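Protocol step 4 of 6: structure prediction from sequence.
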Amino acid sequence: MSDDPILRALAKCNPNEALKPTDERFVDLDDLRGTPLRKVLVKLLLASDSVENYAKVAVVGHRGSGKSTELNRASVDIQARGYETLWASVNENLDPREISFSDIVRLMVLLLDDRFGQETHNHPPIKQAFDNVLDWFKEVSKTFTKEIDSAKELGMKARIGGPASASGLLVKTELGELSAAISVVRRSEGKERTEIRETFERYNNQLVDNLNSLIRAITEICCPGKSLVIILDNVDKYEPKVVNDAFLRNSELLREVDCHLAIYDSVLAFV
């Protein structure tokens, strides 16, 4: 190890690493930046709640400007306000090269499964919602049964209530297992990668309806009186065209999701 303190400091600093709220390396620059992002985000959420609406917020900034670090700090403030917060790094949980709208919806389904899937054993309405969405996913993906079964066995080896799936989230239900297996197929190099995306995106409206049915069942029982906030980080790791196709072209559908949604990127610009 070099005795040069600057070289030692550089060795400990990874510009791609988002700092946790308690990280001793964090330097508070709120006075220079102006109103902290976390306060703006909380204000937007409270304003939307006051009119019984859901905020859809895109946080933009240059890559490496500290968006994810601010996100981590904002998450603490949001939860302290009584919100139920789910967080995912998009590029780590989905294909790091390309994503689609259906991938984003499935990631949100996986987040719900990871946090609330165990409740299907305790609450019949939640189990019924998961089963209904599972039946729909099975019907739409039935022509890819061979590829999905192979993904379950070879790609992620997921079991109900078992280890983390290929998405990086814990699989709790059969719906979570199927959703994670589709993510494996979407990472493959075969023609099925595109075909399964095209198949699901014929039903984008139904995808949102399915997601909303899960959110409603979960929030009514597990989070009474609270609003759910889903935070999607690291969208800026994708090319602008990919982001445009996955998010901007489907912004109206995203607005219909029955929870608050915050997306962290460098090119998005819708609320």
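Step 5 (inspection) to follow. The longest helix spans residues 204-222.
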